[in-house]
Model the fold of this input.
Amino acid sequence: MNDHHKHAQPLISDSALTRESWKIFQIMAEFVEGFEKLASIKPSVSMFGSARFKPDHPCYILGESIGRLLSDAGFSVVSGGGPGLMEAFNKGAYGGRSLSVGLNIQLPHEQIANEYQDISLFFRHFFSRKVMFVKYASAYVVLPGGFGTLDELAEILTLTQTGKSRKIPIILVGSGFWSGLVKWFREKLVEEGTIDQADLELFRVVDEPQQVVDAIFDYYKDRTIEMTAEERHRQLEL
Done:
């Protein structure tokens, strides 16, 4: 091939390369701050759900109730820190005896942090924030939501399925909302062989606030809530 047929690769300017390099330190700072502030909140439960539900929505009321029960049961409650169900989770926990934590994300259309946070962290990057949701969680509780909620659910299912994270209770709240997805998992993913039948046991579906708390305590009745040395090593490699 003649050289004139080759397309020259655009060169990255020195200033652009410098900005990319300094971005690494910004990312490191997010991880360091997250590790320092969240290491002391254990045990904790990470909770997810729609940012769009208003305080009069049944799911908001449900989320606030679950947050309060978990907080009074001794679990710090961790949410995305924004409005909707995130606010409901934090509000419930804030009124309880344990910590209410918000992992806020900076978005092009600014997310407003809710006012019910004992600990607030702010992230520019979704990926560093997602690590924080997983790293110290003793359970995941997922209420109805949109793409962001599904993203977090897929994340924890993948990490536990592949063994990159320790297994923890993954609790979907609202059988009416989740039944279609679970049916699709069973009738399409299992049938097509893209997941195993046993993978359906990674999560459970409940409807009532107390069932969430009971499911978590039931999971840990025969195992310690503290991570083993092997699990701690695994979490370091998230």
